[in-house]
Amino acid sequence: MNHPRDVASPPPPLTGIAPLALLRQLAASLEGGQRPILALDVEQMQRHSTEQMRLCAALHTLASSSAQASSGSCSKAAAGKEPPQLARELEQAGQRVLHFGRVQAALLRRTRRFLGVLQNLEVSAGVTYGPPLNAPRPHGAGGGGH
């Protein structure tokens, strides 16, 4: 059974080359996904979204296995040690992912607003371009004979 303390605790920091590669791929996918959002290219947006979900799942799996390893026979201090250069690169890659994630979220909000404007235009165009509500019916329409 999970205790509240277990649920609220942050995942252990990812260390090593594998998470660095995944973070770099995720940042590249987020950056590459900007153009399809701006172009409203739904097929490419879906491709990038699928790739991003796959990379996030891989990172989550890696973090989970890292948590299990650190609770096993390895000491927590030994599990968290890494060369300073690798630590800097992990930090930078994580910051890039955060940045591009924020940019993507902003672009998606902008796109949602744009689509809302289009929807409102469509609704109002029905009134503007539709037949007049009180227009007289042409003679002969309606099948009644005089």
Structure explained in plain terms:
With 146 residues, this protein is an all-alpha fold. It has one domain. Helices cover 73% and strands 0% of the residues. It contains six helices and no strands. Helix 2 packs antiparallel against helix 4. The longest helix is centred in the C-terminal third of the chain and has 46 residues, at 84-129. Mean pLDDT is 80; it is low at 1-12 and 74-79.
Short description, anyone?
By secondary structure, this protein is mostly helical. Helix content is 73%, strand content 0%. It has one domain (13-128).
The stretches of 5 or more residues where confidence is low (pLDDT under 50) are 1-12, 74-79
What is the count of structural domains? Answer: 1
- Averaged pLDDT: 80
Determine the N-to-C terminus distance.
83 Å
Order of helices and strands: HHHHHH
Key terms:
mainly alpha; 146 residues
Topology diagram in text:
Layout: H1 4-8, H2 17-32, H3 34-39, H4 42-70, H5 76-79, H6 84-129
Helix pairs in contact: 2-4, 2-6
